[in-house]
Amino acid sequence: MSDYRGRFAPSPTGPLHAGSMVAALASWLDARAHRGAWLVRIEDVDTPRCVPGADRIILDQLAACGLVPDEPPVWQSARGPLYRQALDGLVAAGLAYPCGCTRSDIARALAASGASKPRHGELVYPGTCRNGLHGKPPRAVRFHADGPEIRWTDRRLGEQHQHVAEAVGDFVLHRADGLWAYQLAVVVDDHLQGITDVVRGEDLADNTPRQILLQHALGYATPRYLHTPLVRDAAGEKLSKQTGATAVDVADPLAVLKAAGAPLGIGADGATVGEWLAAAVTAWRT
């Protein structure tokens, strides 16, 4: 087995649908093609959105399709002390700071500066609390996003770049509701689990520069990234649980795998799940 370590990290907001199955299969194929390890991490830090029992359903769906992790799955909800240690280090180094701003505060500050254009529905934080809370009680903790433009090469999308301070602003690491932000949790987990390659859906590519910034700040290595094609509905929208995507029916796992392989360009043959997966690994290598 090589030093390659990959992972599939679903959020248990419902069962896997056709789009998330593509990401699961791609991550498994890439690990197997590199003769590496494949892990599953349940990303359940956003507890209000999690559906009870969805984590077990996801694991059962994967197993039915022959996608079994090489190590026991981990749940982010049990890893809070690890995130706290990383956050405390960033605060101590002056790379993160408490923020007392509400969304209304941010909107007003942006409007006053004439820079109120939202980005994907989110307001670019203007840095109001960088130099103190100005009498406001602390609500969240943000990362100080100053620095050069982040450049990286995606294994599918090619050369990418983003100036995080301009495109996103100082982003949240610990939320006002007391929950850990995805950006911090995923970076800490990828490091502690020794992940060398992140294979995930293209909708998450925009997160990569923030995660690279955090990796640099924490002294972590940066994995290789590969973002897979999105599966879209009849209206051209990204297939997701939020848009009513239905759960994949693993009563016919071979059909599920073939459907997931199609957007990846995998046209493997096989009469059984095992045969199809073996052929798909060969196809992925080429």
From TrEMBL:
Source organism of this protein record: Piscinibacter gummiphilus
GO MF terms held by the record: ATP binding; glutamate-tRNA ligase activity; zinc ion binding
UniProt cross-references to InterPro entries, sorted A to Z: Glu-Q_tRNA(Asp)_Synthase, Glu/Gln-tRNA-synth, Glu/Gln-tRNA-synth_Ib_cat-dom, GluQ/Sye, Rossmann-like_a/b/a_fold
Residues bound to ATP: 241
EC number annotated for this UniProt entry: 6.1.1.-
Motif window: 'HIGH' region: 10-20
Names of the cofactor(s): Zn(2+)
Pfam families: tRNA-synt_1c
Binding site for Zn(2+): 99, 101, 125, 129
Sequence positions that bind L-glutamate: 7-11, 43, 182, 200
Cofactor note: Binds 1 zinc ion per subunit.
Highest taxon of source: Bacteria
Catalytic class of the enzyme: ligase
Keyword annotations from UniProtKB, A to Z: Aminoacyl-tRNA synthetase, ATP-binding, Ligase, Metal-binding, Nucleotide-binding, Zinc
Any one GO BP annotation for this protein: tRNA modification
Intervals of motif 'KMSKS' region: 238-242
One cellular component term from this protein's GO annotations in UniProt: cytosol
Full protein name: Glutamyl-Q tRNA(Asp) synthetase
SUPFAM superfamilies the UniProt entry points to: Nucleotidylyl transferase
The keyword Aminoacyl-tRNA synthetase belongs to this UniProt entry's keyword annotation: yes
Purpose: Catalyzes the tRNA-independent activation of glutamate in presence of ATP and the subsequent transfer of glutamate onto a tRNA(Asp). Glutamate is transferred on the 2-amino-5-(4,5-dihydroxy-2-cyclopenten-1-yl) moiety of the queuosine in the wobble position of the QUC anticodon.
